[in-house]
């Protein structure tokens, strides 16, 4: 059987998904039960509980009703779909249309997002949205890891001294937040400056719809997208360990796309910039 969705891992973080401009985009992190976008609702998403929707274009969001129905037929917990506020009303109308057709109402939860939100995944992980620039209302998302650590000033104190400080009402620990994975959905390059942590994310999934001069930077921008030629000059300022390009146009075969990356990415960044293997 031909399964949709390719796996990719980096430093203990496991991903599965697909991304091809205008066709389908959805990348999941199964061990954390979360996904960024849902494409048409493929089986690798059936066990996921947190769905972070970047925007409402069908290549990213068409699978929402189908996933809701699949989840309700299994014993799974009701899934949560996080999305731009402007998507919620129309999505509810779509769900009520399906309820009419199927003569059955599925339970679901839609949550509107804004930039100041924090969504807990579990004790050690949370997701924070950031604004992106597209033809419709859109957000990207960052997965953070949190760790409680002793404050540096407390590191040299003994257990007894620490207890005394704590009993005096002073905080001895601090919360360390590390941006692990940022995911852009569809956007123009300006999103890079939308939040200070984006460029520091360990892994950045970055849309790069066009890769060569047959399509100009301007035509990428006209449709709210990013051209590889806009990314290359900014590679030096990105502190990410991996930049995973997604959403390349179907006009490039996988081979051709990889070939263009080898030709165009400066040698010092060749190991850092990759193309997501699933399309
Ligand atoms: Zn798209
Ligand atoms: Zn789009």
- Bound chemical compounds: zinc ion
- Structurally, the number of domains stands at 1
Largest β sheet strand count, sense and barrel closure: 7 strands, mixed
- Return the CATH topology: Metallo-beta-lactamase, Chain A
Overall form: globular
Number of DSSP strands? 14
Our measurement of the CA-to-CA distance between the termini, rounded to an integer number of angstroms, reads 17 Å
Secondary structure class reads alpha/beta
| The named CATH superfamily | Ribonuclease Z/Hydroxyacylglutathione hydrolase-like
Percent helix: 10-25%
**Strand order of the biggest β-sheet:** 1-2-3-4-5-6-7
Order of helices and strands: EEEEEHHEHEEEEHEEHHEHE
CATH class value? Alpha Beta
Alpha-carbon Rg, integer:
21 Å
CATH architectural type:
4-Layer Sandwich
Low-pLDDT stretches = none
Q: Percent of residues in beta strands?
A: 25-35%
Mean pLDDT: 95
Number of helices: 7
Concise structural overview:
By secondary structure, this protein is α/β, with parallel strands linked by helices. Helices cover 22% and strands 29% of the residues.
Task: Report on the architecture of this protein.
With 279 residues, this protein is α/β, with parallel strands linked by helices. The protein has a single domain (6-275), classed as Ribonuclease Z/Hydroxyacylglutathione hydrolase-like (Metallo-beta-lactamase, Chain A). Helices cover 22% and strands 29% of the residues. It is built from 7 helices and 14 strands. Strands 1-2-3-4-5-6-7 form a 7-stranded mixed sheet. A 7-stranded mixed sheet has the order 8-9-10-11-12-13-14. Strand 13 (242-246), helix 7 (254-264) and strand 14 form a beta-alpha-beta unit. The longest helix is centred in the middle third of the chain and has 18 residues, at 85-102. The model has no long low-confidence stretch (mean pLDDT 95). The site of one zinc ion (ZN) has 4 residues, from loops.
């Amino acid at each position: 059987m031909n399964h949709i969705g390719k796996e990719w891992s980096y430093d203990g973080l496991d991903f599965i998904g697909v991304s091809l401009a205008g066709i389908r985009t959805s990348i999941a992190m199964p061990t954390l039960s979360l996904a960024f976008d849902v494409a048409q609702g493929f089986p690798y998403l059936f066990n996921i509980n947190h769905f972070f929707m970047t925007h409402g274009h069908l290549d990213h969001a068409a699978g929402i009703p189908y996933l809701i129905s699949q989840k309700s037929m299994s014993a799974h917990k009701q899934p949560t779909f996080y999305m731009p506020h402007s998507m919620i009303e129309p999505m509810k109308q779509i769900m009520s249309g399906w309820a009419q057709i199927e003569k059955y109402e599925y339970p679901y939860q839609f949550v509107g997002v804004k930039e100041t939100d924090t969504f807990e995944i579990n004790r050690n992980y949370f997701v924070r949205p950031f604004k992106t620039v597209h033809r419709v209302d859109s957000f990207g998302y960052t997965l953070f890891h949190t760790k409680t650590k002793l404050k540096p000033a407390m590191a040299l104190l003994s257990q007894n001294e620490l207890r005394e400080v704590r009993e005096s009402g002073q905080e001895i620990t601090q919360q360390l937040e590390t941006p692990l994975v940022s995911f852009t959905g569809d956007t123009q390059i300006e999103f890079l400056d939308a939040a200070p942590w984006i460029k520091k994310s360990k892994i950045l999934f970055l849309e790069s719809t066009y890769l060569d001069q047959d399509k100009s930077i301007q035509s990428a921008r006209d449709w709210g997208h990013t051209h590889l030629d806009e990314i290359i000059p900014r590679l030096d300022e990105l502190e990410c360990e991996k930049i995973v390009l997604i959403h390349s146009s179907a006009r490039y075969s996988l081979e051709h796309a990889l070939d263009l990356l080898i030709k165009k990415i400066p040698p010092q960044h060749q190991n850092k910039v990759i193309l997501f293997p699933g399309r």
